[in-house]
Amino acid sequence: MAQATDFDRRPWILLSPALLAITLLVIVPMSFILVYSFYENVDLAIDKVAFQFGNWKEVFTDGYYHNAIWKTFRLSLIVTVLAAVLGYIPAYFIASTNFRHKWLLLLLLILPFWVSFIIRTLSWIHIMGNHGAINGMLMWLGIIDAPISMMFNEFAVIVGFIHVFLPYMILNVYVSLEGIDDNLVPAARTLGCTEWQAFREVTLPLSLPGLAAGCLLVFVLTAGSYVTPLILGGPNDFLFGNLIYDAIITELNWPMGATLSFTLLVLLGAIVIIYSRFMGMNQIYKAFG
User: Fold this and answer.
1) 189-234 residue pLDDT tens
2) What mean pLDDT, rounded, does the chain reach?
3) How much is the average pLDDT of 244-252?
């Protein structure tokens, strides 16, 4: 009987380091943020210890925050769909190529991670700006007489997001494609499938876990970002993360910043739960199995 009890405790003993890390690094900090959201901001960086719902009432009733939430999720969905379409092609090429040095292609894929996130975002100003490479080339060729305005709008923000998060999508899809048995597609071809039918009936369904994992990752990262809209967007291209940044850094209203942060956490958590309900987290885990 004692042995059975010891056996039952063994999983918890093995999980204890991970549970301790999650508790100290996630649960405890988020608990502090939740408690701080009920404080009252008296002046710049001056907060009063209180238990009031003024911050939460403002978030729930002010249409300004509702608009920011809608814009954040809409833009995140656009970026996710574009990243899925654009990322599947290079992932499929890397997984199916006969190039002996496949590691070199993967190295080129992760090479952008060696450059600062902010520098990669700022580079688009020199590419799409009025005096950037694209306008300079078009004017040199005589196609246009005046620079085309491509910066500081939603289009520039989407381009910046895809540039930064596309490698995450490619890597997730590649891992899923690499795990597919090489004999399945030839077997489908011998049974009469065309190349397109073999891809549609075999490769695509088996790669969906990686695609689902990449979509979830890109969506969450986009929804929580604020640097790209801050650099590439205009005054009306703010996301919810920019409101958190402004509340904490600009207005020094830390209770409101805590309220907005926890709101975004709950919303993204709800999306992950709904996503896992319909897609199945066990299917997403298969992408890394």
Assistant:
1) 888 888 899 899 999 999 998 999 999 999 999 999 999 999 999 8
2) 89
3) 92
Do the bridges between strand 46-48 and strand 40-43 make them parallel or antiparallel, or are there none, so unpaired?
antiparallel
Which CATH number applies to 56-288?
A: 1.10.3720.10
Structural domain spans, the chain: 56-288
Q: Is 237 helix (H, G, I), strand (E, B) or coil?
A: coil
Look up residue 225 and give its two tokens.
Answer: 């970002």
**pTM greater than the 0.70 cutoff:** yes
- Give me the phi and psi of 138, to 5 degrees please: -65, -40
Looking at the chain, list the stretches that DSSP marks H as alpha helix, in order from N- to C-terminal side: 2-22, 28-36, 54-61, 63-96, 102-110, 117-128, 133-140, 154-178, 184-190, 195-198, 204-223, 227-232, 240-245, 254-279, 281-285
Using DSSP, state whether 37 is helix, strand or coil: coil
State which H helix or E strand residue 236 sits in.
none
